[in-house]
Specification:
- There is one protein chain.
- This protein is α+β, with helices and mostly antiparallel strands.
- Helix content is 16%, strand content 33%.
- The protein has an eight-stranded mixed beta sheet with strand order 2-3-4-1-13-16-15-14. Strands 6-7-8-5-9-12-11-10 form an eight-stranded mixed beta sheet, with helices on one face.
Protein backbone atom coordinates (compact mmCIF):
# COMPACT_ATOMS: atom_id res chain seq x y z
CA UNK A 1 0.00 0.00 0.00
CA UNK A 2 1.26 3.45 -0.94
CA UNK A 3 1.02 5.14 2.45
CA UNK A 4 2.94 8.11 1.04
CA UNK A 5 -0.31 9.32 -0.60
CA UNK A 6 -2.42 11.48 1.73
CA UNK A 7 -5.18 12.72 -0.58
CA UNK A 8 -5.57 15.03 -3.55
CA UNK A 9 -3.00 17.61 -4.61
CA UNK A 10 -4.87 19.39 -7.42
CA UNK A 11 -7.46 18.90 -10.14
CA UNK A 12 -6.74 20.20 -13.65
CA UNK A 13 -9.53 20.94 -16.13
CA UNK A 14 -10.04 22.71 -19.45
CA UNK A 15 -12.02 25.83 -20.31
CA UNK A 16 -12.97 27.88 -23.37
CA UNK A 17 -12.37 31.39 -22.02
CA UNK A 18 -9.68 32.56 -19.58
CA UNK A 19 -11.49 35.72 -18.46
CA UNK A 20 -14.74 33.90 -17.75
CA UNK A 21 -12.89 31.12 -15.95
CA UNK A 22 -10.95 33.56 -13.78
CA UNK A 23 -14.10 35.49 -12.85
CA UNK A 24 -15.98 32.32 -11.88
CA UNK A 25 -13.34 31.06 -9.48
CA UNK A 26 -12.24 34.36 -7.98
CA UNK A 27 -15.51 36.33 -8.00
CA UNK A 28 -18.17 33.63 -7.68
CA UNK A 29 -16.42 30.96 -5.60
CA UNK A 30 -14.14 33.44 -3.84
CA UNK A 31 -10.93 31.46 -4.35
CA UNK A 32 -7.55 33.08 -4.72
CA UNK A 33 -5.69 32.93 -8.01
CA UNK A 34 -2.34 31.69 -6.74
CA UNK A 35 -0.51 31.41 -10.06
CA UNK A 36 -0.82 32.79 -13.56
CA UNK A 37 1.45 30.92 -15.92
CA UNK A 38 1.23 29.03 -19.23
CA UNK A 39 0.81 25.48 -20.44
CA UNK A 40 4.24 23.79 -20.54
CA UNK A 41 3.43 22.16 -23.90
CA UNK A 42 1.57 25.10 -25.48
CA UNK A 43 2.74 28.45 -24.07
CA UNK A 44 0.09 30.30 -26.07
CA UNK A 45 -2.44 29.01 -23.49
CA UNK A 46 -2.69 30.12 -19.86
CA UNK A 47 -2.39 27.74 -16.95
CA UNK A 48 -4.37 29.27 -14.09
CA UNK A 49 -4.32 28.02 -10.50
CA UNK A 50 -6.96 28.83 -7.84
CA UNK A 51 -6.93 27.84 -4.18
CA UNK A 52 -6.47 29.05 -0.62
CA UNK A 53 -4.05 31.77 0.48
CA UNK A 54 -0.87 29.89 -0.44
CA UNK A 55 -2.19 27.19 -2.79
CA UNK A 56 -2.00 24.43 -0.20
CA UNK A 57 -2.00 20.96 -1.78
CA UNK A 58 -5.58 19.72 -1.65
CA UNK A 59 -7.04 23.16 -2.36
CA UNK A 60 -5.89 23.95 -5.90
CA UNK A 61 -8.14 23.86 -8.98
CA UNK A 62 -6.17 24.51 -12.16
CA UNK A 63 -7.26 25.25 -15.73
CA UNK A 64 -6.02 25.27 -19.28
CA UNK A 65 -8.31 27.80 -21.01
CA UNK A 66 -8.12 27.00 -24.74
CA UNK A 67 -9.88 29.81 -26.61
CA UNK A 68 -13.21 28.71 -28.14
CA UNK A 69 -12.66 25.07 -27.21
CA UNK A 70 -15.60 22.74 -27.96
CA UNK A 71 -17.48 21.69 -24.84
CA UNK A 72 -16.75 18.22 -23.53
CA UNK A 73 -19.30 15.43 -23.46
CA UNK A 74 -20.15 13.81 -20.15
CA UNK A 75 -19.81 10.05 -19.87
CA UNK A 76 -17.78 7.17 -18.50
CA UNK A 77 -14.03 7.24 -18.06
CA UNK A 78 -13.66 10.65 -16.45
CA UNK A 79 -13.71 12.66 -13.26
CA UNK A 80 -17.33 13.76 -13.45
CA UNK A 81 -17.53 16.06 -10.41
CA UNK A 82 -15.11 17.97 -8.22
CA UNK A 83 -16.27 18.37 -4.63
CA UNK A 84 -15.27 21.34 -2.46
CA UNK A 85 -15.49 21.38 1.34
CA UNK A 86 -17.38 24.24 3.00
CA UNK A 87 -18.24 24.87 6.68
CA UNK A 88 -21.28 23.34 8.33
CA UNK A 89 -24.33 25.54 7.99
CA UNK A 90 -23.02 27.52 4.98
CA UNK A 91 -25.00 25.95 2.13
CA UNK A 92 -27.86 28.44 2.48
CA UNK A 93 -25.39 31.25 1.89
CA UNK A 94 -23.89 29.46 -1.09
CA UNK A 95 -27.23 28.65 -2.66
CA UNK A 96 -28.19 32.32 -2.57
CA UNK A 97 -24.76 33.45 -3.77
CA UNK A 98 -24.64 31.07 -6.70
CA UNK A 99 -28.15 32.10 -7.69
CA UNK A 100 -27.22 35.79 -7.54
CA UNK A 101 -24.21 35.10 -9.77
CA UNK A 102 -26.36 33.34 -12.37
CA UNK A 103 -24.77 29.92 -11.88
CA UNK A 104 -26.49 27.07 -13.72
CA UNK A 105 -27.87 23.83 -12.30
CA UNK A 106 -27.92 24.77 -8.61
CA UNK A 107 -29.70 22.04 -6.65
CA UNK A 108 -29.54 20.22 -3.34
CA UNK A 109 -27.90 16.82 -3.76
CA UNK A 110 -27.25 15.14 -0.40
CA UNK A 111 -25.17 11.95 -0.24
CA UNK A 112 -23.18 9.87 2.24
CA UNK A 113 -24.73 11.77 5.15
CA UNK A 114 -23.48 15.12 3.82
CA UNK A 115 -25.49 18.17 2.89
CA UNK A 116 -24.41 19.10 -0.63
CA UNK A 117 -25.10 21.64 -3.32
CA UNK A 118 -24.56 20.74 -6.96
CA UNK A 119 -23.90 23.32 -9.70
CA UNK A 120 -22.17 23.79 -13.02
CA UNK A 121 -19.21 25.93 -14.02
CA UNK A 122 -19.10 28.19 -17.09
CA UNK A 123 -18.32 25.26 -19.40
CA UNK A 124 -20.71 22.78 -17.82
CA UNK A 125 -18.08 21.61 -15.31
CA UNK A 126 -19.61 19.45 -12.58
CA UNK A 127 -19.11 20.78 -9.04
CA UNK A 128 -20.42 20.12 -5.56
CA UNK A 129 -20.11 22.04 -2.31
CA UNK A 130 -20.26 19.69 0.66
CA UNK A 131 -20.64 20.61 4.32
CA UNK A 132 -17.81 18.70 5.98
CA UNK A 133 -17.72 18.53 9.74
CA UNK A 134 -14.32 18.82 11.39
CA UNK A 135 -12.47 20.32 8.43
CA UNK A 136 -10.09 22.74 10.17
CA UNK A 137 -8.49 24.11 7.01
CA UNK A 138 -8.76 27.85 6.48
CA UNK A 139 -10.31 29.20 3.30
CA UNK A 140 -9.18 32.31 1.43
CA UNK A 141 -10.78 35.43 2.90
CA UNK A 142 -9.31 38.01 0.54
CA UNK A 143 -12.55 38.08 -1.45
CA UNK A 144 -16.01 39.08 -0.22
CA UNK A 145 -16.63 35.56 1.16
CA UNK A 146 -16.13 35.47 4.93
CA UNK A 147 -14.25 32.83 6.91
CA UNK A 148 -17.58 31.38 8.05
CA UNK A 149 -18.49 30.43 4.47
CA UNK A 150 -15.19 30.24 2.56
CA UNK A 151 -14.27 27.14 0.57
CA UNK A 152 -11.75 25.13 2.60
CA UNK A 153 -10.33 23.17 -0.30
CA UNK A 154 -11.31 19.94 -1.98
CA UNK A 155 -13.32 17.27 -0.24
CA UNK A 156 -12.76 14.90 -3.12
CA UNK A 157 -13.77 13.89 -6.64
CA UNK A 158 -16.33 11.60 -8.25
CA UNK A 159 -15.15 9.32 -11.04
CA UNK A 160 -17.73 7.90 -13.43
CA UNK A 161 -16.75 4.51 -14.88
CA UNK A 162 -18.27 1.60 -16.76
CA UNK A 163 -16.50 -0.90 -14.49
CA UNK A 164 -15.07 0.08 -11.14
CA UNK A 165 -13.37 -3.16 -10.10
CA UNK A 166 -9.81 -2.53 -11.30
CA UNK A 167 -9.93 1.14 -10.25
CA UNK A 168 -11.11 0.11 -6.77
CA UNK A 169 -8.08 -2.16 -6.45
CA UNK A 170 -5.81 0.65 -7.60
CA UNK A 171 -7.28 3.10 -5.09
CA UNK A 172 -6.80 0.59 -2.28
CA UNK A 173 -3.18 0.21 -3.37
CA UNK A 174 -2.91 4.03 -3.25
CA UNK A 175 -3.81 4.17 0.49
CA UNK A 176 -7.59 4.53 0.04
CA UNK A 177 -10.02 2.18 1.71
CA UNK A 178 -13.67 1.53 0.97
CA UNK A 179 -15.73 3.30 3.63
CA UNK A 180 -19.30 3.35 2.28
CA UNK A 181 -21.62 2.49 -0.59
CA UNK A 182 -24.74 4.25 -1.83
CA UNK A 183 -26.56 2.99 -4.90
CA UNK A 184 -24.13 2.75 -7.81
CA UNK A 185 -21.44 4.77 -5.99
CA UNK A 186 -18.67 3.48 -3.73
CA UNK A 187 -16.77 5.85 -1.45
CA UNK A 188 -13.05 5.50 -0.82
CA UNK A 189 -11.09 7.61 1.68
CA UNK A 190 -7.63 8.02 3.18
CA UNK A 191 -7.73 7.70 6.94
CA UNK A 192 -5.97 10.68 8.53
CA UNK A 193 -5.48 12.31 5.15
CA UNK A 194 -5.03 15.94 4.13
CA UNK A 195 -8.75 16.84 4.08
CA UNK A 196 -9.00 16.41 0.31
CA UNK A 197 -9.05 12.68 0.80
CA UNK A 198 -12.27 11.23 -0.64
CA UNK A 199 -12.79 9.54 -4.02
CA UNK A 200 -16.27 8.39 -5.02
CA UNK A 201 -16.52 5.85 -7.85
CA UNK A 202 -19.86 5.78 -9.68
CA UNK A 203 -20.29 2.72 -11.90
CA UNK A 204 -22.58 3.03 -14.92
CA UNK A 205 -21.99 0.02 -17.19
CA UNK A 206 -24.09 1.37 -20.05
CA UNK A 207 -22.75 4.90 -20.12
CA UNK A 208 -21.28 6.27 -23.34
CA UNK A 209 -17.60 7.22 -23.17
CA UNK A 210 -16.80 10.77 -22.17
CA UNK A 211 -15.26 13.12 -24.73
CA UNK A 212 -12.80 15.67 -23.40
CA UNK A 213 -13.30 19.35 -24.09
CA UNK A 214 -14.11 22.56 -22.26
CA UNK A 215 -15.51 21.70 -18.84
CA UNK A 216 -13.74 18.32 -18.69
CA UNK A 217 -11.23 17.31 -16.05
CA UNK A 218 -7.91 16.64 -17.77
CA UNK A 219 -6.34 14.84 -14.80
CA UNK A 220 -6.53 14.48 -11.04
CA UNK A 221 -3.36 14.71 -8.94
CA UNK A 222 -2.60 12.98 -5.65
CA UNK A 223 -0.27 14.45 -3.05
CA UNK A 224 3.01 13.14 -1.67
CA UNK A 225 5.32 15.08 0.61
CA UNK A 226 8.50 15.20 -1.47
CA UNK A 227 10.47 13.77 -4.37
CA UNK A 228 11.81 10.85 -2.35
CA UNK A 229 8.26 9.73 -1.57
CA UNK A 230 7.29 10.26 -5.20
CA UNK A 231 10.10 7.98 -6.41
CA UNK A 232 8.93 5.29 -4.00
CA UNK A 233 5.40 5.58 -5.36
CA UNK A 234 6.62 5.48 -8.95
CA UNK A 235 8.64 2.32 -8.39
CA UNK A 236 5.74 0.59 -6.64
CA UNK A 237 3.32 1.50 -9.44
CA UNK A 238 5.74 0.30 -12.12
CA UNK A 239 6.36 -2.93 -10.21
CA UNK A 240 2.60 -3.45 -10.27
CA UNK A 241 2.53 -3.07 -14.06
CA UNK A 242 1.59 0.58 -14.63
CA UNK A 243 3.36 2.68 -17.26
CA UNK A 244 4.48 5.76 -15.33
CA UNK A 245 6.28 8.81 -16.71
CA UNK A 246 9.60 9.93 -15.27
CA UNK A 247 9.34 12.82 -12.78
CA UNK A 248 8.65 16.11 -14.57
CA UNK A 249 9.53 19.50 -13.10
CA UNK A 250 6.36 21.65 -13.11
CA UNK A 251 8.13 24.54 -11.33
CA UNK A 252 5.80 24.44 -8.29
CA UNK A 253 5.78 20.66 -7.85
CA UNK A 254 7.25 17.55 -9.45
CA UNK A 255 4.80 15.31 -11.30
CA UNK A 256 4.49 11.75 -12.55
CA UNK A 257 1.54 10.53 -14.66
CA UNK A 258 -0.14 7.23 -15.48
CA UNK A 259 -3.43 6.10 -17.01
CA UNK A 260 -5.85 4.16 -14.82
CA UNK A 261 -7.79 1.02 -15.83
CA UNK A 262 -10.96 3.13 -16.10
CA UNK A 263 -9.29 5.60 -18.46
CA UNK A 264 -8.78 8.50 -16.03
CA UNK A 265 -5.37 10.17 -16.06
CA UNK A 266 -3.76 10.18 -12.60
CA UNK A 267 -0.86 12.34 -11.47
CA UNK A 268 1.20 12.06 -8.30
CA UNK A 269 2.56 15.49 -7.34
CA UNK A 270 4.94 16.67 -4.62
CA UNK A 271 3.96 19.19 -1.96
CA UNK A 272 7.29 20.92 -2.61
CA UNK A 273 8.49 23.50 -3.55
CA UNK A 274 5.13 25.35 -3.56
CA UNK A 275 3.69 28.39 -5.29
CA UNK A 276 5.78 30.94 -3.35
CA UNK A 277 9.03 29.82 -4.95
CA UNK A 278 8.94 32.75 -7.41
CA UNK A 279 6.44 35.17 -5.79
CA UNK A 280 5.96 36.33 -2.23
CA UNK A 281 2.73 35.27 -0.56
CA UNK A 282 1.18 38.74 -0.70
CA UNK A 283 1.45 38.86 -4.51
CA UNK A 284 0.71 35.30 -5.56
CA UNK A 285 -0.97 35.01 -8.93
CA UNK A 286 -0.44 38.59 -10.04
CA UNK A 287 2.47 38.51 -12.49
CA UNK A 288 2.69 36.21 -15.50
CA UNK A 289 5.24 33.55 -14.58
CA UNK A 290 6.79 31.53 -17.39
CA UNK A 291 8.51 28.15 -17.28
CA UNK A 292 12.24 28.55 -17.69
CA UNK A 293 12.24 27.03 -21.18
CA UNK A 294 9.74 29.66 -22.36
CA UNK A 295 11.08 32.74 -20.60
CA UNK A 296 13.08 33.87 -23.64
CA UNK A 297 9.75 34.01 -25.54
CA UNK A 298 8.08 36.31 -23.03
CA UNK A 299 7.44 39.21 -25.40
CA UNK A 300 5.87 36.93 -28.01
CA UNK A 301 3.81 35.00 -25.43
CA UNK A 302 2.48 38.14 -23.75
CA UNK A 303 1.45 39.53 -27.13
CA UNK A 304 -0.64 36.41 -27.88
CA UNK A 305 -2.30 36.00 -24.48
CA UNK A 306 -5.49 37.95 -23.87
CA UNK A 307 -5.01 40.02 -20.69
CA UNK A 308 -7.04 38.84 -17.70
CA UNK A 309 -8.92 41.71 -16.02
CA UNK A 310 -9.42 41.15 -12.30
Amino acid sequence: MLTQIKGLHHVTSMAANAQENNAFFTKTLGLRRVKKTVNFDDPSVYHLYYGDEVGTPGSVMTYFPFANMVQGRRGAGEVAETVFSVPKGSLGYWKERLGNHGVDGVQDRDAFGERRLRFFGPDGDGFLLSEVEGDARQGWTGSDVTAEEAVRGFHGVTMRLRDGGATAELLKFMNYEEVDRQGTTTRFAVRGGNGADVVDVEVLPGAAPARQGAGSVHHVAFAVEDRAAQLEVRKALMDTGFQVTPPIDRDYFWAIYFRTPGGVLFEVATNEPGFDRDEDTANLGQALKLPRQHDHLRERIEARLEPIID
